[in-house]
Amino acid sequence: xxxxxxxxxxxxxxxxxxxxxxxxxxxxxxxxxxxxxxxxxxxxxxxxxxxxxxxxxxxxxxxxxxxxxxxxxxxxxxxxxxxxxxxxxxxxxxxxxxxxxxxxxxxxxxxxxxxxxxxxxxxxxxxxxxxxxxxxxxxxxxxxxxxxxxxxxxxxxxxxxxxxxxxxxxxxxxxxxxxxxxxxxxxxxxxxxxxxxxxxxxxxxxxxxxxxxx
Length: 214
Prior knowledge:
- There is one protein chain.
- By secondary structure, this protein is an alpha/beta fold.
- Helices cover 38% and strands 15% of the residues.
- It has a six-stranded parallel β-sheet with strand order 3-2-1-4-5-6, sandwiched between helices.
- α2 packs across α4 (89-109) and α4 (89-109) packs parallel to α5.
- It is globular.
């Protein structure tokens, strides 16, 4: 089985690659842009098949899909930092929405109709949740509150549309906060953990700097 992981150099993608490589009969492929850091996958680089590809380039995506012809795709590549989506909304929307659209179109154009693709959504899609709605379910209304959240809602609905229109084997997931080794320090848990580690190592005063906790 050929498994393609977009965003393989990232936090979740690299851990998924570790897991997939331990499964019998699985070949793991990944894509990266030329400037993508590789420290998260350097320890398994000799066991991976890495292809350079920019998901925003439709021709590049189609060529990549045609050469790999994956059985499974885990689509994890994204602009995933919410504050960045406020500073660069157009880039966030293009990366997340057009990148996925190019993947779907490539599957159709190359005849990879049997490929199953998992779409990594986000709890940010729910956005505004009223007190009486908690705990929320998958049926809760989507009320996105950031450009990033809007991009994820669009990815979610685009996957549904391609499933209904073309039979694309798209599986939509909405992940909530997750963390662990390799998570970038711009994210809250990693940021707090790093500060605590530096305090314990007496490299900074015993004060943890936080953002808006409301």
